[in-house]
Amino acid sequence: MAGKKLPPLPAAATLPEADVLLRMMADMRRALAKPVSERRWVMVIDQRKCIGCHACTISCIAENKLPPGVVYRPVIEQESGTYPHVARTFLPRPCMQCDNPPCVPVCPVEATFKRPDGIVEVNYDQCIGCRYCIAACPYNARTFDFGDYYTKSTPGGVQAYEKAATFEYGKKRARDHEASPVGNARKCHFCLHRLEEGMPPACTTTCVGRATYFGDANDPESLVHELIGSPNIQVLKPEANTKPRVYYLV
Amino acid sequence: MKAMRYLFGALWAVAFVLGLVGVWQRVTHGHELAGYGSYVVWGLWVAAYAYFVGLSAGSFLFAALVNVLDVKILKPLTRIALWTSLVSIGVAMVAVLLDLGHMSRAFKVFTSANFSSMMTWMTWLYTAFAILLALVGWFMYRENERMVKALFTIGIPLAIAFPGGGGALFATLSAKPYWHQPLYPVFFVVGALVSGGALLAALAALVWPRRTEMIRLAGKIVLGLIAVDLLLEWAEYSIPLWYGVSPEKEVLMQVLTGPYWWVFWIVHILLGCAVPVMLLMMKPASPTAVGLAGALTAVTFLAVRLNIVIPGQVTPELQGLENAFSDNRLTFAYSPTTHEWLVVLFLAALGIGALWLGARFLPLINTKEVQQDERAA
Predict the structure, then answer these.
(1) Does domain A18-249 have CATH number 3.30.70.20?
(2) Has the ipTM of the complex gone over 0.90?
């Protein structure tokens, strides 16, 4: 039987009360239609909206199957003032995907490099695990995969979920003894494997307070383009001259 | 004397076996048993690497300068200095290899070299240096003195470049204010000379205790080098600390008064400088005093390397990061684990074993030149 003819749905993202995620996804669809070198992925984090729930940290760990000791997006808690005038602010710290990245030139084997869309990638099969890049990062944004497991010393041994494959940089990798990414430097990559499928990074999607925004700063119509034009925009450690692609609204 | 030799042999065997346990742990468990983490990312093994590189460059520079400047009294030390240099660079490479996350990919530094990285430069310079050492050995064996002298002359800038580059490997990282200072490459070259020269003074006292002039001169050189090293250290500490408001103050105070204060004050200043200086000044011609002074300075120099590598990493880049995510790999505190010490024991045993093998089976000590020299004397 023939289905009922329906009028097309209104573009939800354009409604003023629509979830900001819909707008970001629409922004991403436009960006993905362009050649990769014309995209400029940036992240904006609104510190005034962040409630310090750490959902971004956890979703990142779940998305990228991160082992103990490897964290891409910790949330730093800062306290200021003295009682009774006190305040607490939260600073999520992903990789800044710097335009002038100190981690890239130090790599002795060109295992870490800047992609045309601006993401700093780590080639796990090339990395020798010297950790020079980790020492070079002024944000401590890189961590080393020591090959640890959360459940190793439990009665049942290492649980299957800890060996689940990661899809970072679009390649499936099951976790196994010393195979990469064990023994490699690891870092946030804006969930590149999700971006390529039109999905925002896991941290952005799961942000309870919708405090993390993502998109293409080369697109004047995009939300992030609008936000980084705000007068209250900042970057971390501007004096380090790293030119970060993660901005903070304060 | 024989009993001492047996005791030393037994101690060496114990150290070697324990060291092998450490290496076995490293091979079977990867980096799991190491105490360093993702914030203090380089630990004892990197300090050991810097230490052995220093010994290597220092011994070579000593031999090269003695030959190029034709310092006759010290010339018999040339071969043993070269062998020490070769052994030390080999041990340093083993240290750094064991520190890599993927040892099997080390060759990529040659096949996919990135020459903007100081680490690439270092690896290539070490290789060039090892080739040069082999060539010097070969031409010495062939008794081609012209080539030996030419290679020594080429070797001097090379042996200044690689410890200097070792300093630059740390100093070029702008993220670490403790390391990011122009003095570091110079500091590393002087450090290489101090530790290498001291080791050779100790070896001279051990091998030729009756050559008073040689012992006296070797001791004098060590004394002078310790003075230069202390002067540089004074500059390194006094300038950022003078007004007490610099960003490096916290790290420097960690070194001087933190939980590992004794590494600086007891191991380095007292045992590595004060005691040797006293011995060298009070008994400049005594082989026991010079030997002990040299050995103390050379061995305790590991403390200087540790105080370079570790403190540079103990302050968070972003305040509060240490509490943001709880994990024992994500802390800014570090102390080497037993496993790491076992591996260092292996490196030391490897070096001492190779030195002994060289002295036993290679024409290092009882050479034709030395015999001629003895006859002339």
Answers:
(1) yes
(2) yes
